[in-house]
């Protein structure tokens, strides 16, 4: 019953589908804003899922009961419906989910955008909490992290760079949804971390110079863990697929896929 937004069809030039995995508090909508139509125009079959409890994907239990294993199962369920294994592309928490998926399932290639490191989000969590400690005190950040991350100042500083137009920030902040505390405060902190040594898929690691979550050093460390080098986009914030300049990110992914999958 997972909601999937699909655009385009596979072509001779691009026979392998692309499966996009969103990050915490987001949904398939963050890919549908620009990327899905763009990659469909390039000749790809592009799909984005709503992880359980996000967007239009239902959940019969409280979202705080969800684990990162659940999210990996969601990706596997959607990938399994496709005629061939897809390229998996994950952003932020979704990048971590993709890393976990790759340790268990084959994929022709993968892309990580502003991804959570395989070692977890502990340092990033501390940085964000220190930077916005007043908002942390004013909100139920432990039981309802959405209250904290959807606060206007926190959302802009964390997900976007300072030059991103206010209308983009406000519109996308209004679309944020709840996230599992079990995933954020347990699995991605210490309980269920990624295992890069089990992954042999070729991975493109992209980062943003002005990311409010993950530092360039952390992005570089993620790339090293997967035996590659990170590529950084100047003057971009965490939500690389939603900010002005997203076209350059899409172009780089397309170029890399053409070279990697040929």
Protein described:
This protein has a seven-stranded mixed β-sheet, sandwiched between helices. It has twelve helices and seven strands. α3 crosses α4 (93-102). The chain has helices at 29-32, 35-41, 68-80, 93-102, 122-131, 133-138, 145-149, 152-159, 166-173, 181-191, 216-225, 246-261, and strands at residues 4-7, 18-21, 46-49, 87-91, 110-113, 203-208, 231-233. With 262 residues, the chain is α/β, with parallel strands linked by helices.
Largest beta sheet: strand ordering: 1-3-2-4-5-6-7
What is the radius of gyration computed over CA atoms, rounded to a whole number of angstroms? 17 Å
Shape: globular
Range of strand content: 5-15%
Order of helices and strands: EEHHEHEHEHHHHHHEHEH
User: What percentage of residues falls in helices of 4 or more residues?
Assistant: 40-55%
Quaternary assembly = single chain
* Number of beta-strand segments: 7
Largest sheet: 7 strands, mixed
Mean pLDDT: 96
Spatial gap, N to C terminus: 34 Å
- Contiguous runs where pLDDT drops below 50 for at least 5 residues: none
Question: What would you call the structural class?
Answer: alpha/beta
Tally of helical segments: 12
Please describe the structure with a list of short key phrases separated by commas or semicolons:
single chain, 11% strand, alpha/beta, 7-stranded mixed beta sheet, 262 residues
Give a brief rundown of this model.
The chain contains 12 helices and 7 strands.
Q: Which helices and strands appear, and what pairs or packs with what?
A:
Elements: E1 4-7, E2 18-21, H1 29-32, H2 35-41, E3 46-49, H3 68-80, E4 87-91, H4 93-102, E5 110-113, H5 122-131, H6 133-138, H7 145-149, H8 152-159, H9 166-173, H10 181-191, E6 203-208, H11 216-225, E7 231-233, H12 246-261
Helix pairs in contact: 3-4
